[in-house]
Design brief:
about 375 residues, 13 helices, about 20% strand, alpha+beta, single chain, Jelly Rolls, globular, eight-stranded antiparallel sheet
């Protein structure tokens, strides 16, 4: 098959037929998530080339054009992102908008990142000391109205245009997360620091993606700044091959090593000026390709609040119906929102049934019983 040869030429590896067929099928229905495979091991094995090989498939019959008033802003921003892997946009939202988003967030359940089985209202953990280092919400326990402050920021046109021109294909909004992090008194165990992502790692939840982070509080060196390694994204990423370079690791079926990476490895392989500590005032937007090396920082004083949105080339990836939010589009079928759109949830359910994802199907059916059609 010619198209598979083109794919493997970019990948510079032989690729299993079943996985390739699944990829090819998804290019026709990118808003669905089908049978899962361990794609991450192939990203490591190919030294970051899987992303571009997959995008080659998704690009078929797609013509991408900028659809934004400030054409040059999108063009220059995308060029900077491709070069560095991140982009800073100061004063992206006002203090008034921040207050409205925070108020919207009070409607959702949050979980302690060290114990995801327990949910809590934000007013409770914000007013109590020494509960946990980070609380997060997948914003999934109720619908998000697209016209609400939270809905507007997660689905705004600037995000979509930047994502479209960076990815090179139509983007899809797949998830949003609200995070509240604070200083704690107790020392963290090894497993807890892994959970909180305070060691270098790279993301590969989807084939190609961008994350949009908005600081909702001022972030300085003491309040847990995000750290990113410039120009470490995609094929620029240097993957450790020695177990000694990991803080903790696992071995994939194809023999590749994966896990949390020691700072020594990063410091040996990247220049000091390329290790960027993101200290910025509230309202700052950080756009980042988190397939690059990054980590969180321990909070030494105060707290930090942040909102993130994930835009991808496809909904095929790390998908959990239980934690994927729902956008109420007021009955409209909006293409880039199909993975999370209320009007498309029924079709997502049928797709799960079709691919024999029984347990996920039942969970989603229960969650969306108000719109499920028997």
């Amino acid at each position: 098959m010619l198209i598979k040869k083109e794919f493997e030429d970019i990948l510079k590896l032989k690729f299993p037929d079943n996985e390739f067929k699944a990829l090819l099928k998804n290019t026709d229905e990118p808003y669905f998530n089908n049978k899962g495979y361990n794609w991450r091991q192939w990203q490591i094995k190919s030294e970051g080339r899987l992303t571009n090989a997959v995008i080659h498939l998704y690009k078929k019959n797609q013509k991408i054009e900028i659809d934004y008033d400030d054409h040059n802003l999108i063009k220059t921003s995308t060029e900077q992102l491709k070069k560095d892997g991140y982009l800073i946009v100061p004063n992206f939202i006002s203090n008034e908008e921040i207050d409205k988003i925070k108020n919207d967030a009070l409607k959702f359940d949050f979980y302690n990142s060290l114990d995801k089985s327990k949910t809590q209202h934000p007013n409770k953990f914000k007013s109590t000391e020494d509960l946990g280092p980070r609380y997060a919400s997948n914003l999934d326990n109720r619908d998000i109205d697209i016209s609400s402050p939270l809905g507007k920021i997660l689905t705004n046109k600037f995000f979509g245009e930047i994502a479209k021109n960076y990815l090179g294909v139509k983007p899809y909004f797949c998830s949003g997360v609200y995070m509240f992090s604070t200083k704690i008194k107790k020392s963290l165990s090894i497993n807890e620091t892994k959970t909180l992502a305070q060691h270098y790692h790279f993301d590969f939840s989807h084939f190609k993606f961008l994350k949009f982070f908005i600081y909702l509080t001022d972030v300085d060196i003491n309040s847990g700044p995000h750290v990113f390694v410039r120009n470490s994204h995609g094929e620029n990423c240097i993957f450790p091959k020695n177990a000694n370079d990991f803080f903790s690791y696992t071995v994939h079926p194809n023999g590749t090593l994966d896990g949390r990476i020691n700072s020594d490895f990063i410091e040996k392989n990247y220049a000091p000026e390329d290790i960027i500590t993101m200290c910025y005032p509230k309202g700052t937007l950080i756009i980042e390709d988190t397939s690059g090396m990054h980590k969180g920082s321990k909070i030494l004083s105060g707290s930090r609040e942040m909102l993130s949105a994930l835009y991808t080339c496809s909904n095929y990836g790390q998908y959990n119906p239980k934690t994927q939010l729902t956008i109420d589009t007021n009955g409209k079928d909006i293409d880039f929102l199909r993975p999370v759109s209320k009007v498309w949830k029924q079709r997502q359910i049928e797709n799960f049934k079709k691919h024999n994802k029984v347990s996920q199907y039942l969970k989603l059916k229960r969650k969306l019983s108000n719109i499920f059609l028997n």
